[in-house]
Design goal:
By secondary structure, the chain is of the alpha+beta class. Helix content is 40%, strand content 25%. The chain has two domains: 210 residues, Acetylcholine Binding Protein, Chain: A (Distorted Sandwich), CATH 2.70.170.10; 141 residues, Up-down Bundle (Methane Monooxygenase Hydroxylase, Chain G, domain 1), CATH 1.20.58. Helix 6 runs antiparallel to helix 7 and helix 7 packs antiparallel against helix 11. The radius of gyration is 43 Å and the shape is rod-shaped. Keywords: Cell membrane, Ion channel, Ion transport, Membrane, Signal, Transmembrane, Transmembrane helix, Transport.
Length: 457
């Protein structure tokens, strides 16, 4: 029994000895939220810093110096440097003529009352929450032409505030804004559109607040990520500053112009290409002959109905404007081609019916084989059967005064189909050349007015 207990006692002794030899590390968190352990040699030898911490600096600046947020920092005017970072453009709506985007607004100005370099700060820059911004003077700037604008608050208000030792204040807002667009749809879907935003101080004129684009930035309005829209492509951003007169004085306005080019591939696939196919199908009727009139009629009517339905589907997603758009010209001319093919079908059907009727009125047609092919033999039948045709020709001659139309009316139905099979594609090809040349040149002219790079179009 004694020999059995001895190994167990020895094993317990080794476990206790190992526990006593473990160095227990204590985690230390100082008032600056620096995490360290008590076995760290740098912690034991570090001397306390003789500096002023951020809460004390904020309290001294706002409460200990008599700071007044309603007082302009400089009586001669405060220059405010502004810079925009475009994060995303979410939509452009042709019906309401506006666009929506998310941007970062950067504002920077100098407030001497917030200078703290003499306080020996522990941090060179103070990064504080948006609640402190409510206690500071701000230029009260906003988008004066926006339909809607608000600061994001997910999960908290997206405002970044930093104060530099010399008193410079840097504020960054993440804003969702909806602004107006000057949509001109004459060239739709080959159009180029412009959208505008105007940013200014709402309360202070340019004698008190001078709004300026950031001079240190080559592009005061820049894009953080590549903008991808289903219908448009952002091709240019232009920033300008103007002085606008108001009853209370002159205000500095910062203008942002965004130029968008429409992606027309979707419209080509959904509107132009089906139109081509519908017109080509309507031309098949020219090859079916004069005996397939029901099939030709069904083919032409279905093509016209398909074109009308397609045109209405496109117009449903566009605003009601009082001018003619490029796609209106295309669809109307395409429907005209299909209507003319139906008109040609009516003429061919009318002439075919007359020919069949004239044959039914000739019961002695087989007797032609018993006569010799001489003018005398045919003369008797001309006097008997051709007289009504000559009277009808006389009536048409009184109505139709142009010799060209008379010659055309004397064509056979087969000849009309043969000529139509050549004339319709030729005229449609000429229309395509004129249409695309005209509207593409108009697009280049508009791009030249906007001073756009034609290589990007």
């Amino acid at each position: 029994m004694h020999n059995r207990k001895t190994p167990n006692s020895f094993f317990i002794f080794l476990i206790l000895l190992s526990i006593l030899q473990i160095n227990i590390c204590e985690i230390i968190i100082d008032s600056d939220y620096n995490v360290s352990s008590d076995d760290d040699p740098t912690t034991t030898t570090q001397k306390p810093r003789n500096c002023t911490r951020q809460p004390a600096i904020i309290d001294k600046l706002l409460n200990g110096t008599g700071y007044n947020k309603f007082r302009i920092p400089n009586e001669n005017g405060v220059p405010v440097q502004v810079e925009f970072w475009v994060q995303a453009i979410t939509s452009i709506n042709e019906i309401t003529n506006d666009f929506e985007m998310d941007i970062y607004i950067n504002e920077m100005w100098l407030d001497p009352a917030l200078k703290f370099d003499h306080l020996n700060p522990c941090k060179q820059n103070l990064s504080v929450s948006h609640q402190v911004l409510e206690q500071l003077w701000t230029p009260n700037s906003c988008f004066v032409n926006s339909k809607f604008a608000e600061i994001h608050d997910s999960p908290f208000k997206n405002v970044f505030l930093m104060i530099y030792p010399n008193g410079t204040v840097w504020v960054n807002y993440r804003v969702n804004v909806k602004g107006p667009c000057d949509l001109s749809l004459e060239l739709f879907p080959l159009d180029i559109q412009e959208c505008h935003l105007i940013y200014e101080s709402f309360n202070y004129n340019n004698q008190e607040v001078r709004m300026r684009w950031n001079e240190k930035s080559a592009e005061p309005v820049s894009v953080t990520n590549k903008i991808r829209l289903p219908d448009f492509e952002l091709i240019k951003i232009e920033s300008t500053r103007i002085s606008a007169p108001y009853p209370a004085g002159m205000w500095d306005e910062l203008h942002v112009k965004l130029v968008f080019e429409r992606r027309y591939i979707w419209y080509f696939m959904q509107a132009y290409l089906p139109t081509y196919l519908t017109i080509f199908i309507s031309w098949i009727s020219f090859s079916l002959g004069t005996k397939a009139m029901p099939a030709r009629t069904m083919l032409g009517v279905n093509a016209l109905l398909a074109m009308i339905f397609q045109f209405g589907n496109i117009m449903r997603n566009l605003p009601r404007v009082s001018y003619v758009k490029a796609i209106d010209v295309w669809m109307l001319v395409s429907m005209t081609f299909i209507f003319l093919s139906l008109l040609e079908l009516a003429i061919v059907g009318y002439k075919t019916k007359n020919e069949e009727g004239s044959k039914k009125k000739c019961p002695h047609k087989k007797l032609l084989d018993n006569f010799e092919a001489s003018p005398a033999g045919l003369c008797r039948y001309e006097k008997r059967f051709m007289l009504p045709v000559e009277r009808r020709s006389a009536r048409w001659g009184g109505i139709i005064r142009f010799q060209v139309f008379q010659d055309f009316w004397n064509w056979s139905p087969e000849k009309i189909d043969r000529v139509s099979a050549i004339m319709f594609p030729a005229c449609f090809a000429i229309f395509n050349i004129v249409y695309w040349s005209y509207y593409y040149n108009k697009k280049l002219e508009k791009a030249a007015e906007m001073k756009l790079n034609e290589d990007r179009l």
